[in-house]
Structure formats: structure tokens, C-alpha cells
Amino acid sequence: MDARDDEMPGLRRPVIGIAAAREVVSFSWWTIRSDFMTSGYSEAIQRAGGRAVLLALDPLDALHPHEVIATLDGLILPGGADMDPAHYGHEPHRALGPTDADLDAVQLALARAAIEADLPLLGICRGMQVMNVAAGGTLHQHLPDLLEGSEEHRRVPGTLDEHNAHPVDVEPGSLAALAAGAEPSTRSHHHQAVDEVGDGFIVTGRHTGDGLIEAIEAPRASYCLGVQWHPEADPESPVIASLVAAARARMQQPSS
User: Fold this and answer.
1) Which CATH class name applies to 3-251?
2) Which of 191, 186, 241 is nearest to 215 (CA)?
3) Is the dihedral of CA 53, 31, 104, 129 positive or negative?
4) Neighbours of 242 (CB within 10 A)
5) Alpha-carbon span 193 to 215, nearest angstrom
């Protein structure tokens, strides 16, 4: 049953913001610069009974992120382009992809503001990396260098189907386990990953084979989870629904 079928008439749906990327996108007759999200995010939020809101890239949000946070019940930092390694004190790797200074600044600010406000926060792929860097952590810039040339985490470029799936070991009783299930099969597409873990986060998921960090969370928060995989690409994944549930619980708390 769709979670929307259980909604009481007149009850406001939790509002989940998705931080947009700004890229050149093709549709119909057009190839044009756009603020966008892939529909897997919004569809997963809607299935769980939430309202998906696209947060267009606004450089002023880097200066005033709490204005955005105040309008939301939950936040997703989605997958996307590489981050500028200057944010964690590293020189660029030769395999670094294109970076976007405004996107980095806005998403880092939103991550810090959401953590400070204890807003339910889910980071997906790049989003998990943003959360980690926002807390002072670092990244591996190119996994084939670390994994002796292996492309295990991006076997088939340009797809998030089952060909890019692999198992993850999650800590029993962790938020990652509660959100994803005890033995999640995950769909990945990345060449960077968390290295040194940021302040306030712990590792609660690792790749079953190579031990790469696949999930981090902040145990002192009500809901603050980063996953290196793409739950929005798997209609059977419960991860995004768990964020919506946390947002609904926060929304229904009495005001202080």
C-alpha cells in the first residue's frame, strides 16, 4: 500500500527539500542550463507520504542556510558532481571531475545548518561526502587508486540498475540498519568516498568485500545519515521512507 493512502484528511505532509544541482540538461527540443533533480528522489518521497520540494541553487543560501532549513521538515543532499578538494585541504587528483563552487558552498552550509538544527538529514552518494566534509572529514578522490584499479563501485558508468549493485555490512541496531535493513543490496555509482570521518560521525556501514565506508551517521542526532549508494534508484529501498518518517515525527512534535 502507498503511504499516501494512510494519510488523514487535512494532515500536512512533511516537506522534504532536495538540494538541486545546476547542469546542462537535454529535454524535448532543448539543451539548456537547469536546476534539477532526478525523479527517483521525488517519487520515493511521495510514495512515503512526503512532499518533495526542489531547492534551486541559490548562492545566498550559503550565507543564510537557516532560512532554508526553517521551511523544511527534512533535507536530502543528493548525488552529483565531485567536490573541490580544497574544502578538505587536498590538492586536485588527475581524475577529479568538474566542480561547482556555488554548489559546494550551498550544500556545505545546508549540511551544517541542518545538523545544528537537528533537522532530519539524509546524504546520498555525493551528499554523504558533503556531510562528512562539512564536519571536517576528508575524501578519497579516486577509488581505483585505493583499490588497485578496481571499478567495483562504478562497474557500468551511466546506470544505476542491478549491474551496479553490491552488498553492504551495516552495524546491527544502527540508524543505517533501521533505515536500509539488516542486509541491504545497494546500487552504487561513484569514484570518490569518505576517508577520514568528520567530527560527530561514526561509521555504520562498509562494503562487504573491500571494506570501503558506505554509511555514516551522527548518533547524537535524531536522524542524520549518509549512505554512499543510491536508494532513490531502487523502488524497494526503504531508506528515503525512513527519512520521511523521521520528518513526520519531528513535524508532529509539540512546539516548545
Assistant:
1) alpha beta
2) 186
3) positive
4) 21
5) 10
In three-state form (DSSP H/G/I as H, E/B as E, the rest C), the secondary structure along 154-186 is HCCCCCCCHHHEEEEEECCCCHHHHHHCCCCEE
Please state, in angstroms and rounded to a whole number, the distance separating the CA atoms of residues 81 and 214. Answer: 18
Could you list the active site residues? 125, 230, 232
Q: Name residue 32's beta-bridge partners.
A: 25
Give the pLDDT of residue 150. Answer: 52
- 101 grid coordinates: 563552487
Q: Which residue has the higher pLDDT, 231 or 152?
A: 231
pTM for this model (two decimals): 0.89
Domain spans, the chain: 3-251
Place of cell 562497474: 155
Question: Which of 232, 176, 188 has the alpha carbon at shortest distance from 46?
Answer: 232
Using the predicted structure, report yes or no on whether residue 95 has a pLDDT greater than 90. Answer: no
Q: What digits encode the pLDDT tens for the residues 229-241?
A: 989 988 889 999 9
d(Cα 167, Cα 227) in Å, to the nearest integer?
A: 13
